[in-house]
Amino acid sequence: MSSSWQGPTEYLVADLRTVFAERLRSVCVYGPHAEGHGGSAPISCLVLVASIDAVDLDACGRAVHSWHRQGIATPLILPEQEFDRSLDAFPLEYAEMQRAHAHVYGRNPFATIAIAPEDLRRACETQVKSLLLHLREEYIEAAGRPAAVADLVQASAPACAALLRNVARLHGVTSSNRIDATREGAHRAGLPDGIVSDVLALDQPSGVTSTDAARLFPEFLAAVEHMARFVDRWRA
């Protein structure tokens, strides 16, 4: 268990056991901390329980400020049956958790779940086409101002990188390494190495200067358009 979140999650589990007792089923860390580079960001946790009601929510509400002081974000708490039956509703979110998570307590829910490829493809289509619409609309709003275009590209890079990881998952790639999964998705989609390196650099703080980010817009837009066509035509 990683020392960066071991203490805080032990604190969380102790509180959750007080609230839910034997109804507490699972606790997992997901997000950057599960990949070893969370830094000072809050620790994201998925909590599965047998049941949850208003009394439980009140009890968690009384504890939430102490969780925040421990560096833990307000956890995502779900009844385990609801989790199992919502895989088709949130395939991208759960697929990303499954790709990179750390098991803390109880059973590991990600060890046995299977997300349907068509559910994942449909969600990828929504994701990429939403990103494409956003890029075009915000570029018009930027009205040619380089700083605004740079901000648009920089802000959109994480969504593009996440999309590439989802494309990799469409092809059965489940690498827990963020960069490897992103590059594999780009390879499967047929994107050139150069734009992938740019996206990865943009996804890092201060990875690309504002001037360079603005100049990347045409290539960045073309890559997202290409992915939209690829996802639209993809079949298992």
Written overview of the protein:
This protein is α+β, with helices and mostly antiparallel strands and 236 residues long. 61% of the residues lie in helices and 10% in strands. It contains ten helices and four strands, in the order αββαβααβαααααα. The longest helix is centred in the middle third of the chain and has 26 residues, at 117-142. The two termini are 36 Å apart. 34% of the residues are buried. The model has no long low-confidence stretch (mean pLDDT 92).
Number of DSSP helical runs: 10
Alpha-carbon distance between the two ends: 36 Å
Q: Give the low-confidence spans.
A: none
> What about the largest sheet?
4 strands, mixed
Strand residue percentage = 5-15%
Topology:
Elements: H1 3-20, E1 24-30, E2 44-49, H2 54-69, E3 76-79, H3 80-84, H4 91-99, E4 101-106, H5 117-142, H6 146-170, H7 178-189, H8 193-202, H9 210-215, H10 217-233
Parallel strand pairs: 2-3
Antiparallel strand pairs: 1-2, 1-4
What features would you highlight for this structure?
236 residues; alpha+beta; Beta Polymerase, domain 2; globular
